[in-house]
Design goal:
single chain, 61% helix, 0% strand
Length: 92
Protein backbone atom coordinates (compact mmCIF):
# COMPACT_ATOMS: atom_id res chain seq x y z
CA UNK A 1 0.00 0.00 0.00
CA UNK A 2 1.35 3.39 -0.94
CA UNK A 3 1.76 6.12 1.68
CA UNK A 4 -0.66 8.99 1.36
CA UNK A 5 1.81 11.83 1.88
CA UNK A 6 5.36 11.78 0.57
CA UNK A 7 8.23 14.13 1.26
CA UNK A 8 9.55 15.97 -1.78
CA UNK A 9 13.00 14.34 -1.52
CA UNK A 10 11.67 10.89 -0.80
CA UNK A 11 13.01 7.90 -2.80
CA UNK A 12 9.44 6.63 -2.90
CA UNK A 13 8.59 9.55 -5.20
CA UNK A 14 11.10 8.29 -7.77
CA UNK A 15 9.66 4.79 -7.44
CA UNK A 16 6.15 6.13 -8.08
CA UNK A 17 7.33 7.96 -11.19
CA UNK A 18 8.42 4.71 -12.84
CA UNK A 19 4.91 3.33 -12.29
CA UNK A 20 3.19 6.43 -13.63
CA UNK A 21 0.15 5.74 -15.76
CA UNK A 22 0.40 6.52 -19.42
CA UNK A 23 -2.39 8.33 -21.23
CA UNK A 24 -3.99 5.18 -22.62
CA UNK A 25 -4.58 3.68 -19.16
CA UNK A 26 -7.05 6.44 -18.36
CA UNK A 27 -9.28 5.43 -21.27
CA UNK A 28 -10.04 1.87 -20.04
CA UNK A 29 -10.76 3.26 -16.58
CA UNK A 30 -13.32 5.72 -17.90
CA UNK A 31 -14.91 3.17 -20.23
CA UNK A 32 -15.05 0.61 -17.40
CA UNK A 33 -16.97 3.08 -15.25
CA UNK A 34 -19.39 3.78 -18.11
CA UNK A 35 -19.84 0.06 -18.80
CA UNK A 36 -20.41 -0.59 -15.09
CA UNK A 37 -23.15 2.03 -15.05
CA UNK A 38 -24.73 0.45 -18.14
CA UNK A 39 -24.67 -3.03 -16.59
CA UNK A 40 -26.12 -1.64 -13.35
CA UNK A 41 -28.96 -0.05 -15.31
CA UNK A 42 -29.68 -3.30 -17.18
CA UNK A 43 -29.62 -5.39 -14.00
CA UNK A 44 -31.80 -2.93 -12.10
CA UNK A 45 -34.39 -3.12 -14.88
CA UNK A 46 -34.32 -6.91 -14.82
CA UNK A 47 -34.60 -6.83 -11.04
CA UNK A 48 -37.59 -4.46 -11.10
CA UNK A 49 -39.27 -6.67 -13.69
CA UNK A 50 -38.68 -9.84 -11.67
CA UNK A 51 -39.89 -8.31 -8.41
CA UNK A 52 -42.94 -6.57 -9.85
CA UNK A 53 -46.23 -7.40 -8.16
CA UNK A 54 -48.17 -6.39 -11.26
CA UNK A 55 -48.44 -9.15 -13.87
CA UNK A 56 -46.08 -8.43 -16.73
CA UNK A 57 -46.29 -9.82 -20.25
CA UNK A 58 -42.83 -10.78 -21.37
CA UNK A 59 -41.87 -9.98 -24.94
CA UNK A 60 -39.22 -12.41 -26.16
CA UNK A 61 -37.46 -9.99 -28.59
CA UNK A 62 -37.03 -7.49 -25.77
CA UNK A 63 -35.60 -10.14 -23.44
CA UNK A 64 -33.23 -11.20 -26.21
CA UNK A 65 -32.20 -7.58 -26.73
CA UNK A 66 -31.44 -7.12 -23.02
CA UNK A 67 -29.39 -10.31 -22.93
CA UNK A 68 -27.48 -9.37 -26.11
CA UNK A 69 -26.79 -5.89 -24.77
CA UNK A 70 -25.38 -7.36 -21.56
CA UNK A 71 -23.11 -9.74 -23.50
CA UNK A 72 -22.13 -7.00 -25.96
CA UNK A 73 -21.02 -4.66 -23.15
CA UNK A 74 -18.94 -7.44 -21.59
CA UNK A 75 -17.31 -8.36 -24.92
CA UNK A 76 -16.42 -4.75 -25.74
CA UNK A 77 -14.85 -4.38 -22.29
CA UNK A 78 -12.95 -7.64 -22.71
CA UNK A 79 -11.72 -6.85 -26.24
CA UNK A 80 -10.54 -3.36 -25.32
CA UNK A 81 -7.69 -4.89 -23.32
CA UNK A 82 -6.00 -5.87 -26.60
CA UNK A 83 -5.41 -2.19 -27.39
CA UNK A 84 -2.80 -1.91 -24.61
CA UNK A 85 0.02 -3.13 -26.90
CA UNK A 86 -0.52 -0.48 -29.55
CA UNK A 87 1.78 2.54 -29.53
CA UNK A 88 -0.62 5.45 -29.08
CA UNK A 89 0.36 8.92 -30.25
CA UNK A 90 -1.96 11.46 -28.65
CA UNK A 91 -1.70 15.15 -29.47
CA UNK A 92 0.19 17.11 -26.84
Amino acid sequence: MRPVLLALDSPAKEKDEEYAMDLFEFIPIITSVIFALAVAQILSGVSRTAQSEVPIRYFFPHSLLVFNLFIFIFLIWWASWEFRDIEWAFAK
